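Ticket #480: bound-state structure for zinc ion.
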Amino acid sequence: MLKKSRKKAIKSFWGLEAGSLLTRYMNAEGKAGRTARAEIRLDKPKGTRLPLRVWDSEDEARLTVLPLVAEEPERESSLKATPETRIRDAMGPLITAVEKLDVTALEIDFLGSPTQLTQVALGLEIALYRFRRVIGREEPKFSVTIKAKGKPVAAKSLHDGIALGWSINVARHLTNLPPNLLNPKTYAEFAEGFLAGRKGLKVEVWDVKRLKAEKMNLHVGVGRGSNRQPRLVRIKYTGAAKNPAVALVGKGITFDTGGLDIKPSSGMRLMKKDMGGSAAVLGAALWASETGAKCNLDALLALAENSISGKSFRPSDVIRARNGMTVEIHNTDAEGRLVLADALDVAVSAKPKYVIDVATLTGAIKVALGPGLAGLFGNSRPLVNALHKSGQQAGDLNWPMPLVQKYKGMLNSNFADMINATDGFGGAVTAALFLEKFVGEVPWAHLDIYAWKDAPDGAWCEAGGSGQAVACLAEWLRTV
Ligand SMILES: [Zn+2]
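RESOLUTION: The complex was predicted; output attached.
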């Protein structure tokens, strides 16, 4: 029997129980009223323009001509948006335009290839998401019909696009949830209730007692200042018979005050998103299950709230990590790498083929690369290259960064094996170097993400949680 509180959390799923938004719009009953029609095609021969037009069904008068989705003149070929990404991103302006019209139906005719049709579904799924609509369980205001060259397309043949879009939306929604609703306990309950029983998935939750028994003192230390105790969620996905698992580890700080090294208010304002890495990992596991991906996953969500109280861990504390190394706390705001360190050790103990962590780890990477590119670090050139390529193909970009071994000296401590953070320059690199100490010889990569859109962008019609890294991981997992 589930506990009452858990039942309640599972029952509501914060509006996510309804599943794919696009499927709901496609299944919505046609009501009397006007129909908007959009025709989507990539112009030949250049493939550089994507005109969208919306017509009114009654008088066939053209109502709106949407701006073309221009090809960005990037110098780096691996930053260029593929035609597929541009189709995905055109769905944002389309939905925004249609929502301004008084219509009860949207009919889309797509004139591109079947692969590109997947991008239409993906883009629509992402574009239809609004936080308050999901929370409020709003019914669709119009129905959506998708045609390919004039012939209607069923939702099930759009499954790949819908599954990825939905997985991204779940990650976005978790990131958008306020921290008084989403804490390590409710998050773990959600993960268990939402994922367990889906195809290929098994979920295990480690409470603080188990974390202590596992000697995960860094993880426990970070969560100590909060009344809401830390958790580790372990999601196992089995989609292949023998392959060794790919381990995914996500940073899940449900709110980061900075701890005793408290953040200024401007820096704390968005810190509900400090669990964005774990949301991406959960999204990737959901995607694997929904698409029956031919891989095995060992996905770990390291959940804690970095809070302030008499019990908080302190600068100068020396804490022994699960792998036996001692860490002197230099700054309590460098907590993400601490929970990741212990979770990475759990992951590599199971001897995975690869381990990839995803984390909103440093402000320094945002200073270097801006909000649109994740920093990509790793100890394996082929893995880094593959993830870089997958990021571009999925329109979920990252940029390879150097693991400057010489900087390891900056982590030296007279009182422990290392300190957890450095002052001054190179903060994203030294954070990655800290993590590297916990992965042993396993091929490892680290995505330092932002997890947020400051403004609507492409298919993302609403600012907020972005589901960054879900699409990149999904694209890469197809290849392992
Ligand atoms: Zn922090």
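RESOLUTION NOTES: The longest helix spans residues 83-100.
TICKET STATUS: resolved
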